[in-house]
From TrEMBL:
It is a multi-pass membrane protein. This is Protein MgtC. Belongs to the MgtC/SapB family. Keywords: Cell inner membrane, Cell membrane, Membrane, Transmembrane, Transmembrane helix. One of its GO terms (cellular component) is plasma membrane. The keyword Transmembrane applies. Gene3D superfamilies: 3.30.70.260. The keyword Transmembrane applies. Virulence factor required for growth in low Mg(2+) medium and for intramacrophage survival. May be involved in regulating membrane potential by activating Na(+)/K(+)-ATPase. Residues 156-232 form the MgtC-like C-terminal domain. It is found in: Cell inner membrane; Cell membrane.
Amino acid sequence: MAVVVAFQPWTFLDSVVSVVLAFVLGTLIGAERQYRQRTAGLRTTVLVAVGAAAFVDLGMRLTGPDGAVRIIAYVVSGVGFLGAGTIMKEGTNVRGLNTAATLWCSAAVGAFAGADLAAEAVMVAVVVLAGNTLLRPLVNAINRAPIDERLTEATYEVRVTAGDDQVAALRDVLTDQLEAAHYPVSEVEVEERGPDESELVATLVSTAVEPAELDAVVAALERRTEVRHATWAARNSD
């Protein structure tokens, strides 16, 4: 009969309100994710929010705010592991970071609801929705903007392809020409490209360049008879 004795209508109603609020807010966040066909869609987002609310509410019921604080710490780490499962690496591209972050924020919404902080739960849900919708045009505009290599911070590489018997001598030539253009080299690696062909990859110390200067260095290298191909490229430092 402990179940009957422990049942308190008003306390139960409070739990119902917390869980339902988490369900509604999780639905709003998840609907946007589902519409965009993300890995974690409507149901996953709702379950994360409801689960976080239920666990935090349980901590509140059993030991008060101190218990809720301990539960929240475990919710944060647990949802972190769940979000990691949505992140996929395909070559040099990483997908799912935004979805994982949305799940993490959904857990925060549920935690606020479970802790009876309804206004804060609504506020966080609105901000999450704004981040996933209102910021999208700004992201697209930034991505479409031409890249100015002089203002970006990236890792720059100069690649020179030559025969295996020319690589050793060409390494010094490559380093000297780059340093003459005031672009010191941090390292030079050799990558095999074929049975008698290799590629020198010189990584620059500089994190910002003047494109015309590197173009001139590459053009000078390509004029050498032992060089089969020369180019330069930038890759994200992160």
